[in-house]
Here is the input.
Amino acid sequence: MELPSRAPGEILLPQGEMTDIRRRLRALAAQRDVTSVIACAFDHRTRVLPFVYADLRMVPAGVRAIGSALVDSGFSKTRIVLQQWNKNFRPDEMRLDGRIPDLVLVSSMHLHSSACDRLIRAANQIDPAQRPLIIVGGPRFIYEPWQAFSHDPQQPKGADAAVTGEEYVLLSLLEVLLTLRARHESLRSVFERAKESGALDAIPGLVYGRSAQPEGPVEELVDTGIQRLLGNLDELPHPVLGYQLLETPGRGTTLAAQALPVNRVRKHCKISSLVLTVGCKFRCAYCPIPAYNQRQYRVKSGERVADEMGRINATYHINTFFGADDNFFNDAARTLDIAETLARKRTARERPYGNIRYFTEATVHDTLILREHLPLIRRSGLTGVWMGVEDLTGSLVKKGQNKGKTLEAFRLLRESGIYPIPMMMHHDAQPLVTFRNNYGIVNQLRTLRQAGAIYTQVLMLSPAPGSKWYGDTFSSGLAFASVAGRPIEQWISDGNYVVASKHPRPWIKQLTILLAYLFFFNPLRLLLSLFWSKSNIPHADDETRPAEETARYTPWTKFKRWLSLKARAQLMDAALQVVGMAGLIQTVRRTLPWTWQLMRGRIVACDRPPASKIPMRSPQGGPASHALPGTELAAPHALLPVVQPHTCESKAA
Ligand code: B12
Ligand code: SF4
Here is the structure.
């Protein structure tokens, strides 16, 4: 059930095409005013461990990237609304620049589906004569774009199109629409014309609906295929642009006259997430990432990464970054290019680099490959690494990790001054505790804590859309359809709730996760961590302020600073215990009722994956690239005339 790849040689965009399309759009935008609102769907019921802090304090890179791309292409009348900060936002009440925007863009992960659907429905409440064009994107629609459209005749309103790819797909769509747009014509009207003429079919990465009657329910979905990928990530628009578009946090339903002032961004966004690399060489059967990336590994150069961190820090004073990497250590040479550039600037405590630190994700296997370079990587500012340990014994997942290698990687990282943070995956066969081996989840957490883990994540193995195992988890009856008469909703399909299991008593699995967290985050450990701190590692108390500033310190200021750095290094472990316990209270409050339902209620298993209820097809009438098995092929009579695809080269010409 992985996404298919494009043919070799057609996967990557031609070098320079991303830069060119931005230039072409700037010319079009200068003639045609477009206002747009980008909404990030967020369901607050999903606020549980392990991300109770990061989920609200980090502006998601996806919506920020889309905002940056629009501004960079000349569409400066754009606002980004995060439901994380603006719970009550209603698209049907919004006004931007005094009018209803031309374009509403909604981004969503699967677990935020209900919030996303509410946003789409609200946007559809706008009078049809003025209603904006509604485009959706993000992880939910990359894998299951049909979820953007309604097959329900009682509730026929959905999005106009789903983007199953990245910035370039949206920019290509806008280019076609603005080229065809007549004077004073609405974007929605030109979109309808474009789709009926087949002008959208040459843009891979789109799914749009067609219906027999205007405003009627969607009867077929046309899927233009798998997107082409941007190979050189240095061509991406600069992320610094997106932060200037944020709606000020509040309880209102509409938009403020101005975006969040630049000097208040850091108050709400403590961590900036940046795309440094994309892709991973491993092929874990439960993970959709390698197939999504069509087996490509894409990176930014060291200079570009340094420039992004530097400009974001200089503009918004954010000094903590999160690399949205799948496996930052995937390719040693590429990692070292980034690390060496940052290390050079940080070692000289050059403003603003001395103060910058970042976190990311990597594998045990690649950490060991980079063992000699870890001190350099630490000097570049890398402070913590989330590691997909999953199962210390390697019996569930094999990606080059086992107990010996994991502990070796933890030791090397900590000696270099980098915190390792294990991500664990619990599954049916794993007990809570075992006595003669290291198979139990608590045994594994104990070993990892002793090896220096300061935080952790324990998730239940659950069906991940776009992964190899996805279809089988449903057709084998592992995934639940309902529990106690309650259908499985997407907001609980995040690995924190047991929604797929063949265990005779799945509630035991749910309790095991809670007990595993309780073992890791508890008051006794908090007390012990005050004295035997796991956070006091080399470089944890390093001075990061610019040399010219510390040179002016008096002996007393110097002493106070020294004391605060020492205290921070010693107490961070305890602080993370407090964060973990606070998250655990929330997790218990949310998942304990589910444990009860699993214990008392009847569990009905699924027998097939959740395919589209609306027939799908490619523009030429063949099977759609994003259709899951079981999706009906749209009838041939509905076919549009096949249009001559326009390629990047022909457009450039
Ligand atoms: C960073 C990250 C997080 C951070 C997010 C914090 C934040 N506020 O940003 C944290 C650590 C909190 C997190 C948590 C979780 N995450 Co997470 N996370 C990621 C990660 C590694 C990077 C995301 C990112 O920033 N990518 C970079 C941006 C630029 O890419 P993007 O978001 O896909 O956006 C691009 C396109 O999708 C598209 N696009 C996006 N939106 C839109 C909208 C429109 C209109 C258009 C046209 C295009 C478009 O254009 C963008 C630019 O290229 C991804 C994996 C990955 N490599 O993407 C997983 C990922 C997003 N997470 C995932 C999951 C499952 C989770 C958790 C549920 C895990 C858990 N069980 O706890 C939680 C959910 C927490 C919550 N309550 O929301 C899944 C989502 C799967 C899905 N189909 O929905 C992903 C994809 C990993 C995976 N399994 O493949 N995560
Ligand atoms: S190592 Fe991580 S990112 Fe790579 S395929 Fe496995 S789970 Fe996915």
Remarks:
- The two ends are 38 Å apart (CA to CA).
- Residues 280, 282, 284, 287, 289-290, 326-327, 363, 388, 399 surround iron/sulfur cluster (ligand 2) (CB under 6 Å).
- The longest strand covers residues 382-390.
